[in-house]
UniProtKB/TrEMBL annotation:
It comes from Nicotiana tabacum. Belongs to the methyltransferase superfamily. METL family. GO terms for biological process: methylation. This is tRNA N(3)-methylcytidine methyltransferase. Its EC number is 2.1.1.-. InterPro entries: Methyltransf_12, METTL2/6/8-like, SAM-dependent_MTases_sf. The lineage of its organism: Eukaryota, Viridiplantae, Streptophyta, Embryophyta, Tracheophyta. Residues 93-194 form the Methyltransferase type domain. Gene3D superfamilies: Vaccinia Virus protein VP39. Keywords: Methyltransferase, Transferase. GO terms for molecular function: RNA methyltransferase activity; S-adenosylmethionine-dependent methyltransferase activity. It is an enzyme of class 2 (transferase). S-adenosyl-L-methionine-dependent methyltransferase.
């Protein structure tokens, strides 16, 4: 299936074989045992570290790291462009807006939009508000951790036509994804939609992380080379001697993580909180880096969901 207004995607079977993440062997036991000791402590540690990481990221890279995302107008034009009532103002909520690489191209293409945008990084929100095209009349931008902060504090309930989740869910702990969707549902109109684009199982980045033994749990990986201190390793060993620390060089800081989605997982996740699948597909693209002489097989999930 293809998203509304999206061009057909050509996928060569010989180039894109069916893929599922390799089974986790004994070498991953230390990481999995550590992360499953306490869901509460894991979530607290992850949230704190993740916000620190993204704040530092945006302070370093500003709005120069990610390219502007113009593909939303190609994939989902019919959702943003009301051809019947051209004067109708559609309301969009971008959750995890970052430096504004999604919302500013959208407003430029569809000037009748009103956009709410939030991110849990204060530095990201500062970048959005300092953007040359920021307009307080057409945009409501605010700091919010959508996994725990009520969106209705800044957005009126049942007033949003479209929620966009563009590479947002993959950056949070899997245990928090349903909470984010429940939060979005409260501000979405009864006939509203959620548009999702995110990393898919089999993406070359996932394969690379898996080969580096950076798996936390199935399809969930830590990125970068951040490690905990020797004192923390000693603390874990003394408090939880059953956790084997010698099978990995270090334990991960849960600050920079990525989840890779299958169509089945995404469908089940959204249906569990009361959404229906309108459209879902896996978009595949082969990218060649000529300077490094490597070819990467990139995969993304592209999906549309409506309220049931």
């Amino acid at each position: 299936m293809h998203a509304a207004g999206a061009p057909p995607v050509t996928v060569l079977p010989s180039t894109w074989p069916a893929y599922s993440a390799p089974r986790v062997g004994t070498r991953y036991l230390s990481i999995r045992a550590w992360t499953s000791l306490s869901n509460d402590s894991e979530n607290h540690h992850y949230s704190r570290r993740s916000q620190q990481y993204w704040d530092k990221f945006y302070k370093l890279h500003k709005n120069k790291f990610f390219k502007d995302r113009h593909y939303l107008e190609k994939d989902w034009r019919s959702y943003f462009d009301d051809e019947i009532e051209s004067s109708h103002v559609k309301v969009v909520l971008e959750v995890g807006c970052g430096a504004g690489n999604t919302i500013f191209p959208l407003i430029a293409t569809f000037p009748n939009l009103y956009v709410h945008a939030c991110d849990f990084s204060p530095q990201a929100i500062t970048l959005v508000k300092s953007h040359a095209n920021f307009s307080a009349e057409k945009m409501n931008v605010f700091v919010c951790d959508a996994a725990k902060d009520d969106l209705c504090v800044n957005v009126m309930p049942s007033t949003v036509d479209i929620v966009t989740l563009i590479f947002t869910l993959s950056a949070v702990s899997p245990g928090k994804m349903a909470s984010i969707l429940e939060n979005c549902k409260k501000v979405l109109k009864p006939n509203g939609h959620i548009l999702l684009r995110d990393y898919a199982v089999g993406d070359s980045a996932q394969v690379k992380l898996h080969d580096r033994n950076q798996m936390i749990r199935e399809n969930f990986y830590f990125r970068g080379d951040g490690t905990v201190s020797i004192l923390w390793r000693l603390f874990v060993y003394l408090c939880f001697p059953a956790v084997i620390l010698t099978s990995a060089k270090s334990l991960p800081l849960l600050a920079q993580c990525s989840f890779y989605f299958s169509e089945a997982f995404v469908s089940t996740l959204f249906q569990s909180v009361g959404f229906v699948v309108v459209d879902i597909n896996t978009y595949c693209k082969e990218i060649t880096n000529h300077s490094r002489n490597i070819t990467m097989q990139r995969r993304w999930i592209r999906a549309t969901f409506g309220r049931s």
